[in-house]
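dude i think i finally got it to work??
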Amino acid sequence: MNVSYDGVAVKVELDRSDDAKTVFKYQIDIKGSIDEETKGIVFRKVMNCPVKKRCRSSWNLFRKAASFDQ
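look at this
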């Protein structure tokens, strides 16, 4: 997959509200002229990434819906 973009910003937050769980919340914001369909494909690839799958077995990972500004 070849996608043109201006930049990617990733924000990760550790939720410490429950000492018994390790919970990471993350946001991914793709900057540039990229349509929503392509962004959706990229996000699905991120969700199926082998590293993310491995981390998910030990941690709780949640994608936050809203984008953020840097």
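The longest helix spans residues 36-47.
im so relieved honestly
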